[in-house]
Structures are given as C-alpha cells and as structure tokens.
Write a structure and sequence with these properties.
Chain A: This is ATP-dependent DNA helicase RecQ. The complex is a heterodimer of chains A (about 475) and B (about 350). Chain A is of the alpha/beta class and about 475 residues long. Chain A has two domains: about 190 residues, Rossmann fold; about 280 residues, 3-Layer(aba) Sandwich (Rossmann fold). A seven-stranded parallel β-sheet of chain A has the order 3-4-2-5-6-1-7, sandwiched between helices. Chain A has a six-stranded parallel β-sheet with strand order 8-13-12-9-11-10. Chain A starts with a helix and ends with a helix. With about 350 residues, chain B is mainly α. Chain B has three domains: about 90 residues, Arc Repressor Mutant, subunit A; about 130 residues, no CATH class; about 90 residues, Orthogonal Bundle (Arc Repressor Mutant, subunit A), CATH 1.10.10. Chain B has a two-stranded antiparallel ribbon. In chain B, a hairpin with a 5-residue loop joins β1 and β2. The chains are: A alpha/beta (about 475), B mainly alpha (about 350). At the A-B interface, α4, α12 and α20 of A face α7, α8, α9, α10 and α11 of B.
Chain lengths: ~475, ~350
C-alpha cells in the first residue's frame, strides 16, 4: 500500500511534515534508523504509519511511564484499540493476562525494566515483531540530559538473530549522544535523519538580573503587560508554589505544576491550561511532556537550566502553531551555584555510596538504605545499575565521572548565557548544524528582538466562584 | 477542621500512654502490631489510615502547633498528654465522621471510579466519544469500562439518572453544605474542569489541607450510606470492594489458617520461617479482630478477669505497669487479654 494513502486513510493528513516521509521510507526498507525530529513535529507518526503497512507488531520502548500512558491514551482516542502499555503500573494478574495475549496488540509500549524481565522477554521473543522503536533515545547516553541507566540494558535485548529494524527517536541529540545511541543499541550502520532544530518563529532573550527579587519583579511586570499563554520554568517545587501564588495575588491567571501535586490536581491544571481557562503555568521541569497545546506564546526560565538540550526541549514547546513566540531566560550570578547544587544533589557522593552499600550488607531494604544514606530516587536508580555490574571502587569513579560530565554540560550552557555571539547560532552549532538563516526577530545578542506584538491585554484571573452543588451536578450530567 | 484538631482528639484518646508518633503511625495506617493494638485499646478506629501518604514534616507542623498553643505537653519519657487548655479546646470541637478503619485510603479508589464515570457520561452527553481520562490508573479505567459496558450509556436520559442517584446519595450522607460544594467541584466533565485543592482553598477561604480532610470525611459519609442504600444501584457497584473485608493483615490471615488447621505457634513459626514473636503479633491481631478468638487456650478466665479489673483500677492499658502486677503472665498473654477484652470488640 502506498504510504500517502495510509497517511490519508488512517491519519487524515494530506501531507507529511518535514522529515517524516524519509524516515518512514528507511524504516520500511528495513534499515536501522536514528531520527532526530524536533518536539511537536509528529515523531510518533514515524512508527505508527509503518505499523499499519508492515505485518506484525511494533514494540515501542519508552522511558517515562506517564509519557507512555499518555501516548497510549492518545492512540486509543483516535480509534486504535490494539494498543497496550506494559509497565510497573500493572498488577501481577494484569501483567500475566496481557503477556499471555501479546500477539493481539499491534502497538506494544514497554518500559525498559519490564523488557528485561525474563517472562516478558520470552513472550516478546515469540512475537512477530515488524519494528522496534526506542523513544526518547537520548536517555541512553550519559551525555543526554535525561540519562536513564535502564536504557543501557536495551542493547542486550537487541542482540539476537533476525531482529527487526530499530528506529531510535529523539528530539534533541548532539554528536556525542548520536554516537552513544548507535553504540549502546547495537545498531547496524544506522541511517541518520536530522531535521533542523531551528524554530525561526521563536526569539531568544537572555537577561542578567541581580537577584531573585528583581526576577520576581520583572516576571510580574512582564505578565501584566504581555500576552500568554505561557510557561514559567523555575528550579524547585517550592519556588513554583510561591511564585505562582504571588502572581495570583496580582490578579494573574496562573497555577503551579510539579511532581509533588496529586495526580488529579495535575490533570485539572493541564486541562485548564489547554482549554485556556488559565493563562500561565509556573512549573518545574516535570511539566511539558505530552502536552498538546499549539498556541503557547512565551517560555520564561527563571533559573539556569541544567543543559542546552534540556533548555531547547522546554523552549520548543512554544509556538507550535508557527506564529511568533518568545523565549526569555533570566539569570543572576547566584544561579550558577544553585543549578550546580541541584545537579550534584542527584549524583551520590563516595561517602553516600559507601554508606549505602554497607547498609545493604546489613540486609536493610534498598529503599530504606537509600533514604538513610540520603540518596535521591534518581541517584539510587543510577548506582543500583552500576553496583550490579562493577566493583564499588569503579562505581565511585563512575559517579565522579558523571559529576564531571554534568559540570561540562553546565559550562556549555553557561557559555551560551554569557555569549557575545548570536544565541540562535550558538545553539545550532552545539547541535552540529551549520547553515543558519537569522529571522528578523532573532535574539538579544543580535539586538533584533522585537516583541511589540506581545504587548496587549493579559488575561486576568476572574475570581473563580464555585457553583451551587446541585447546579454543578446538572452542568456535568444534565 | 484541620490536622492539629484531629491530632488533639487522637492524643486525648491515647490518654498519656503513648508518644506523639503513635498518632503519626495511626494516621498513616501502619499495620504493625503496636499500632493495630493501639487502635483497639484506645478506640481509634475512625482515624486509622486516614492519610496514608501523610508526610512527617506536615505531621510535625501540626504537632508543634498544638505545643505552641499549649494544648498538649510531653513528659520526660516523651509521653504526650492533653493539658487543661487543650481539654477546653476539645470540648468545642465538632465531632468527626471519619471511618478510617473501614476505608483506609481506599475511598480514593471509589472517588477515582466516580470521577471517571462522571467524566465519561458528561462527554457522551455532549456527543464526545474521545477525551483525555482524568484517571490514569489502569485498574480504575478497566473497572469503569466494565461497569459502563453493561449500562445504557447511549440513552440520553441515562446521565441524568446518574446525576439523580448521586444527588440522593449526597443528601442522604448528610455531608455539610461546604462538603457538597467541595465534593462536586472535584468532579470534572465536558467543558467543565475540576478544581484543584488550591483553587478551592482560594475561593472558599480555607486551608487546602482542611479542604482535603473535609473531602475525605465526605467520602466516608457517602460510602457508609451507599452501603445500606439498595436503591442506589450504580453507586453500590462503584463502591464494590472499597470497604476493607478482612481486618487482618495478609500475613496474619495465613497464620490464622494454619492455626485453624490445628498447628501451634511454634509449628507455625517453623512452617512459615518467621520468628515466634512475629507469629505472636499475628495472634494479638486475631484477638483484636475476631470475636470468636479462643482466648482460653492461652490464659484462664480467672486471670483474664483479674487483669481487666486491675486495668480499670489503675486506669491504664500500659503493658509494663500491668506486667508488674501480674509477674506470672507473659507480655504475650497480657496483650491477648487486652486485645480480646477491650475496645469495641469486647
């Protein structure tokens, strides 16, 4: 079947977005493929469409359970029922039931840790797989901003005779990360598709402000005078709550979002932001994955992000409708230390690792031991992986190396922040792109940012009034 | 209503015989021998497992508030008591209608099923077949799917019927007007998003935590009336398996099964590869929860009567003090007596 016909019949589109067609063609030809497509450009179509053309099931390895659930929900929403997510959310009976009937599903989403369970692995190997997809493939690289040790295992799974082609997808990857993806996934001479990262409709502004108070004042002024919808990224949960309530008091329509909020609250806020009921979100980096909103006009960073790649991922959520949008990064001199502190807080120190392993030897459950040794959940995940594979001394050295790597990434973004050359150019060069066409409204270094279009009446927080309870039920159910 | 006042009520019941952290374990629903024992001895079932995810910092804040207000005092051995001032405060507090022992946080599963059902019906009513489910939990999604499968959801009158049943349930539960507003605004539907705790707090001018507690209480009240309302069929289906059916922990249930087969404590310990003291904890749990617990197999009726009399005379349930009085009895025997003969089960 012609892929254009499938595109029309299954997805209702007349045309491919830039990059999609070439990636799909390579996948259909059975080549291992690495595709770097910016967020919001329809990455998932690159495996969904081949799924319908090829016989057999598509296995999608995805790092974040929440993201996975979101993708599955989206596919179901658009009428695909043969889709399932295999992750740690399932209980034993469900898992057993699903793995016994895996061949029923066209699209199987799976988390790396599930993939490596023997029972699951066996039932997957019995399947007729047409394609294996590694989503957010940059997570495999320690150079990536989202390193997931679980991902390093995936390659082990791929090492069997006659495996189907692998498609590695990511939004952002520099040369080092691309090399790591090919290496750790055991890809065979992968073809690389890389599509321009540049988003000409986004202007970049970086500003030096002397303290948190100044930043707060600037943000307040900005939100009162310019348009949303927008996202303010802050460094901590507490700051998200504080800044959000402060701005709310000024009459702005805003809510805080972070992983410390209850699941329902997060769903309510997301819904309200998408529907336009609230105009701004003040969030930690927990916000953004799986949000489908095309008219975000502004992204404001109130801290120094941990890496350029992470920064670009967040900024890329603006202006998916192609209209003019603005990215603003505010920093003060004290931020450098703060960001370093947050980054290093996740990586266990030698002392913590030794304390942790000595507790494990006393048969203390690992979760408790991690807590006692003051190791974060991320940190525990990383060292558990290494402790299984190497000696303690080596693990300690690994962690030191990781600290250095992260420090290197921080230095890179600091160079961007203090840069005296075009910000757009710096970013694109970092990702290995050479041809750069500067849009009219480019960046604060070029001095061409024109955000007069942003001026305008902001949405104020119309004091929400609860309904009478019977009215509310009638509005909901009739 | 707030955490401090609930804690004050709990401390009052603990009667100066426990440290303040007994309250923490109780609210989190810790299933250890000690906490389960406290629940029974001190009549604390309503508060058990009320806040399974309560953070220690939040708890400490509430406790410190009570200390600052002079409502509670701690002795040298960390035991906590209610002061005169605290007693005065207690007398003006409204009574609570929590049923923690029955629901233990599982009321949130019921709420999850309800929100998803309401969201689904609301969208179908608006002609929308696809929407982002407010609940991500697979179990809840599967449950609601199965539930709705056998109902006439396409009938335009059905959603109103759901609304009417819910209205009756809410009225019958006798929740307060404020609770009715909170409850209905935590539901979402087509074009009508739910309200976050912060948004409710902001517009009702209350502390978000207070609102959460009021919400939990309203769920407990609603679930209790649903249980006895045979006319609320849909709600009864949604409440299936929410109430705790066996008050024994899973491990204790296994021990009980072996005991019923005629095995001794030592034999059970060997068979299950557990310590004798652990098995003894299970027996104490059984003595608390099973009205037909054969206490006489472990201690004579005369001794039992004597211990209960002494307990009333001294006005204490502290084991150490009772042990001083009954040197021939083991701690295990004393715990069994207290378990079987005090609290609601007595």
């Amino acid at each position: 079947m012609d892929i254009h016909t499938v595109l029309k019949n299954k997805f209702g589109f007349d045309q491919f977005r830039p990059g999609q067609e070439q990636v799909i063609q390579d996948v259909l030809e059975g080549k291992d493929t690495i595709a770097i497509l910016p967020t919001g450009t329809g990455k998932s179509l690159c495996y969904q469409l081949p799924g319908y053309v090829l016989n057999g099931s598509v296995l999608v390895i995805s790092p974040l359970v929440a993201l996975m659930e979101d993708q599955v929900a989206n596919m179901k929403r658009y009428g695909e029922k043969r889709v399932i997510a295999l992750n740690s959310f399932l209980n034993y009976t469900e898992k057993k039931q699903i793995t016994a009937n895996l061949e029923r599903y066209k699209f199987i989403f799976i988390s790396p840790e599930m993939l490596l369970r023997k029972s699951v692995k066996n039932s997957i190997e019995r399947l007729n797989l047409s394609l294996i997809v590694v989503d957010e493939a940059h997570c495999i690289s320690q150079w990536g901003f989202d390193f997931r040790p679980d991902y390093l295992h995936i390659g082990e799974f791929f090492a069997y005779e006659g495996r189907p082609p692998v498609l590695a997808l990511t939004a952002t990857a520099d040369k080092k990360v691309i090399r790591d993806i090919g290496h750790y996934l055991n890809l065979e001479e992968p073809t690389l598709h890389q599509y321009p990262l540049d988003r000409p409709n986004i202007s970049y502004t970086i500003m030096d402000l002397d303290s948190e108070t100044t930043k707060t004042r600037w943000i307040q002024q900005r939100l009162l005078e310019t348009k949303g919808p927008g996202i303010i990224y802050v460094a901590s949960r507490r700051r998200a709550d504080d800044l959000s309530s402060l701005l709310q008091e000024k009459g702005l329509s805003i809510a805080a979002y972070h992983a410390g909020k209850e699941q329902e609250d997060r769903a309510f806020i997301q819904e309200q932001f998408i529907s336009g009921e609230i105009n701004w979100i003040c969030a930690t980096n927990a916000f953004g994955m799986g949000i489908h909103k095309i008219d975000i006009r502004q992204i404001i960073h109130e801290h120094i992000p941990q890496s350029i790649a992470g920064y670009i991922q967040e900024v890329g959520r603006a202006g998916r409708d192609g209209l003019q949008s603005a990215a603003t990064l505010l920093y003060s001199h004290e931020d450098e230390g703060r960001t370093r502190f947050i980054i290093q807080g996740d990586i266990p120190t030698e002392k913590e690792i030794r304390h942790y392993t000595s507790l494990l030897q006393k048969n203390i459950p690992s979760d408790e031991a991690a807590e006692m040794a003051k190791i974060t959940a991320t940190g525990k995940r990383i060292i558990d992986y290494y402790l299984e594979r190497m000696y303690l001394e080596e693990v300690v050295r690994r962690m030191e190396k990781l600290v250095q790597d992260k420090e290197f990434q921080l230095q890179t973004i600091l160079r961007l922040i203090y840069s005296t050359t075009c910000i757009r150019e710096m970013i694109l060069t970092f990702f290995g792109e050479s041809s750069i066409i500067k849009p009219e409204s480019c960046c604060s270094v070029c001095g061409t940012v024109d955000d007069r279009w942003l001026q305008g009446p902001q949405v104020t927080n119309l004091a929400k009034r609860p309904l009478n309870w019977t009215e509310r039920l009638i509005e909901l159910l009739g | 209503m707030n955490l401090s006042s609930i804690l004050l009520t709990i401390i009052n019941k603990l009667d100066g015989e426990r440290t303040i952290y007994a309250g923490f374990h109780l609210l989190r629903g810790k299933r250890s021998g000690q906490t389960l024992q406290d629940v029974e001895y001190y009549g604390l079932k309503p508060f058990f497992g009320l806040l399974p995810k309560l953070r220690i910092v939040t708890f400490d804040e509430a406790a410190n508030r009570l200390i600052e207000l002079g409502y509670i005092a701690t002795s040298d051995d960390s035991l906590v008591t209610v002061t005169e001032k605290g007693r005065l405060e207690l007398s003006i507090l409204p009574s609570y209608r929590f049923y923690g022992w029955d629901y233990r946080g599982r009321e949130m599963i019921f709420y999850g099923r309800l929100t998803l059902t309401v969201q689904t019906m609301s969208n179908i009513r608006a002609g929308k077949k696809s929407f982002m489910p407010i609940q991500k939990d697979m179990n809840i999604q599967t449950f609601v799917k199965k539930l709705l499968y056998e109902l006439p959801i396409k009938n335009p009158l059905f959603s109103r019927q759901v609304g009417e049943e819910l209205t009756i349930g809410i009225i019958r539960s006798e929740m307060s007007d404020l609770q009715k507003v909170i409850f209905t605004h935590r539901l979402a539907g087509y074009g009508l998003s739910g309200w976050t705790w912060d948004q409710l707090a902001e517009s009702l001018k209350l502390n978000p935590f207070t609102i959460r507690l009021m919400f939990i209480e309203s769920l407990h009240m609603l679930l209790t009336v649903i249980e006895s309302s045979t006319d609320l069929q849909l709600l009864q289906k949604m409440a299936a398996d929410i109430k705790v059916s066996s008050y024994l922990t899973e491990s204790s249930t296994k021990t009980k099964r072996l005991f019923d087969q005629g095995m001794s404590i030592e034999e059970i310990a060997t068979a299950r590869q557990l310590k004798v003291s652990t098995i003894e904890d299970h027996f104490v749990e059984m003595s608390i929860n099973n009205t037909d617990f054969p206490l006489q197999m472990f201690v004579s009726e005369e001794e039992t009567i004597a211990v209960i009399a002494k307990m009333n005379e001294l006005g204490t349930k502290r084991l150490r003090l009772l042990k001083d009085e009954f040197k021939s009895l083991t701690y295990f025997q004393l715990r069994l007596i207290l378990g079987a003969r005090t609290g609601e089960g007595a």
